[in-house]
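Question: Hello, beginner here. Any chance you could explain the protein record under this note? Any guidance would be welcome.
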Amino acid sequence: MKGAFRIGSVRGVALRAHWSVPLIMLLLAYGLARRTLPGYAPGLAPVVYAAAGVVGALLLLMSLVVHEMAHALTARRAGIPVRDVTLWALGGLTRMDRPATAGAACAVAVSGPFASLLIGGIGVGVAAGVEASLGWRVAVAVLGWLGGVNLLLGVFNLLPAAPLDGGRVLLALLWWRTGDRERAQRAAGRSGQFVGIVLAAVGWLAFVKGMAGGLWLVVIGLFVAGTAAAERRWAELFMALRGVRVAEAMSSPVVAGPDWLTVDRFLSEVAARAGHSVLPLLDFEGHPSGVVRMRRLAAVPSGQRESLRVRDVATPVSQCTLAAPDELLNSVLERLGIGGGLPILVMDGGHLGGILTAHDIDRSRRSPRSP
């Protein structure tokens, strides 16, 4: 996710935080200190409320980490490679490869909500124990709030709507029943679109009736509906490309340019004749060294174009998505995001054999094929 930075690792899984995390934590701490805590434990000094608000927000952040790490560690136990975990304003995202079976997909999906419900139950139970034995009302308020939020998160995440965990459970159940993962993902995406629209409508009605928190539900509902629509389209693309090999879809021969040229020479001698928005680069030995986008070259200041090599502003081949001509196109598309995304460089015996762009993929999707 763009705008995320690494903050550590848990059991070997990289943990990242989006720039929105400190902002949402600050808002949560402010809400606790200004409204929730004074309402439950009035008459204390503002600094007490402020400190308790910060503690509550940090505990919630830790519970979100536990939720996502439950997904990650369950996936690793099932043999699914996990790349990283990223926290952001609306929760978290665990990046992993696709589960190989419906059972593994279901286990990974339910692990997160189970962790949240467990934390929620513990929080509420400890809050009740502290109130009965010690009577520390600020601690009771923080623990009760933490427990309630986690219970809400656990239940909310079980809604049958992709990309929520409940949508993943629905996908796994449909996959197990039909044996067709893409059809199951398309159905889960449709369910997510419906649930997201309902959430947005409920949030808007609540806002109209004077509940400011309704706007937050509108944002969440629109996010769920939009992401679910994208997942449905992705599943439909996979269904349309079943059985298609990379060699059938790639563009060949490839227009490529030397990576040692300066930016001004590349623009005038190569890019002007090629007429493409992105071009692969070759080194002195004729091996691919990366890809360069014309808009990035155009953004180079004119005073630097005569000295800056085009390879210095290109995406190196180590960050590109590579494929072999005989690979299934769907298998390659699953790897997008691990490398540099589109375009895909097709390697044939160490040399550039072709290139796959979004236009090539769309053309293959629309092309009729014999049964």
Remarks:
- The first strand starts at residue 4 and ends at 10.
- The longest helix spans residues 46-77.
- The mean pLDDT is 89.
- Residues 38 and 49 are 7 Å apart (CA to CA).
